[in-house]
Write a structure and sequence with these properties.
The protein is α/β, with parallel strands linked by helices and 254 residues long. Helices cover 36% and strands 19% of the residues. The protein has a five-stranded parallel β-sheet, sandwiched between helices. Strand 6 and strand 7 form a beta hairpin. Helix 6 packs across helix 7.
């Protein structure tokens, strides 16, 4: 069955353009132009929608409010938020209300399509969220989630992103907020090739063409924490001239 995507965009030309290109990729698309219409469609058929592409600046009701109401209703469907606002606090607020990913306008069509595909893949492979009050360490390793990942176990590593607690071989390890943010981005985008430019935009919040060694340095620091051997990484792989790919279960790669 074709995935059903709801596009919420009040700029008609942009909304129609996104709808056309998503349909060209084989998706079924519903286009609405404001928050109340989006919430009505979700309320009528919440489980028929696989993903929402949500503009932030909507008339009458902001994308923040729409996303927050969807999460308050207990729905975990992926939300890709679009906005011409690029301040770090705007992006942070988007994630705080439950957006899975945030893209700044103008954006490249190929990147939008890639993010949509990735979010749908994550959603299809997501396991049920742990019940309130449960201990995440009592559950099986988390491979991916339709919402932002708060806790994950892979290899000998366990990370609670809410409390910034990291354990390797059941021993506590200290990581900086930026290292955790980088790791979380990889965790929320498993198996996908992620370019240095994308990391600069999404993690460092700077233009992707900035010349810096920060990405390489942080990748090296992450590997010291999560890899059994930094000389032969199995979780955080480098793809020459392409970027990096995060692998949760290396055994499946063999």
């Amino acid at each position: 069955m074709r995935a059903h995507i709801m596009v919420v965009e009040d700029e008609q030309h942009l909304g129609i353009g996104i709808k056309y290109n998503l349909e060209a990729e084989g998706y079924r698309v519903s286009l609405v132009e404001d928050g109340p219409a989006a919430l009505k469609l979700v309320d009528v058929a919440p489980h028929s929608i696989d993903l929402i592409v949500l503009d932030l600046m909507l008339p009458g009701m902001s994308g923040y409010t729409v996303c927050q109401k969807i999460r308050e209703a207990g729905l975990g469907l992926p939300v890709l938020m679009l906005s011409a606002r690029t301040l770090p606090e705007d992006r942070t607020r988007g994630f705080d209300v439950g957006a899975n990913q945030y893209m700044s306008k103008p954006f490249e069509l190929d990147e939008l399509l890639s993010r949509v595909k990735n979010l749908l893949q994550i959603s299809r492979h997501a396991g049920p969220a742990p019940a309130n009050g449960s201990n995440p360490t009592d559950s099986k390793p988390v491979a991916a989630s339709s919402q932002a990942v708060d806790f994950i176990e892979f290899g000998k590593v366990s990370v609670d992103f809410r409390t910034h607690q990291v354990r390797v071989d059941d021993k506590p390890v200290r990581m900086t907020p930026k290292e955790l943010r980088l790791l979380r981005y990889f965790v929320e985008n498993p198996e996908r090739v992620i370019s240095r430019a994308e990391l600069l935009v999404q993690v460092w919040e700077v233009p992707g063409n900035v010349q810096t060694r920060a990405v390489d340095q942080f990748i090296a620091r992450l590997r010291k924490v999560i890899e059994p051997s930094t000389a032969e990484p199995v979780h955080l792989l480098t793809l020459r001239d392409a970027g990096y790919r995060f692998v949760i279960d290396p055994e499946k790669e063999k």
